[in-house]
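WARN retry 2 of 3 for item q-0093 after timeout on previous attempt; input resubmitted unchanged.
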Amino acid sequence: LLIAARGGQPAAAVRLGGAFVPGEAFEPRCTHMIVATLKRGEKLLAALAAGCWLLQPGWVEASDAAGTWAAEEAWELFEPGGGSFEGKVRLWVGAPRHHRLRRQQSGAGGLHGLGLVLASDISPSAATLGRIIAAGGGRVCSSLRETGVTAAVVPEGAAAAHPLAQQAAARGLPCVTPGLVFALLTEQDPAPLALAAPPTPEW
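OK item q-0093 returned
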């Protein structure tokens, strides 16, 4: 399946035997995503986590002109010097290929093996983050008491008084923010979640 970002692509994708996936939510069956602009949204992060092909605009048009799908490697997302999400968060230029090859070679997504308990007040929403985690082979746990819990995810800037942070501290589990989870997908050498600093106390 194909996630397309430009208006002329759905019909071309269908002509070539593919399918166009509309909407903002990630479709788990997706295999390719056209990235017109770098934006830290659910589709891009989930596609990274899932090891999908992230391709530059023009791939579908070039394929349509040739009458067959063009080789993806020549169109894989790459920006010399690095890209950025809305000018704030860096995207390691090797991230799309790294996660794609990991999926192809081992079957494991970018968040494989993680078991995360999500606070209800995080941003993006727990539902959105849950879909990104699932796309990467991780698991959203309903309780810190479950076997295999890796960390608790609390809002950015949360203090140690946050209820979930207190529960995690009592069990010796790290607390992380959504940004630290995303860093596992977007940075070349992300810090392990187990080494995350605990939330700061409120004074």
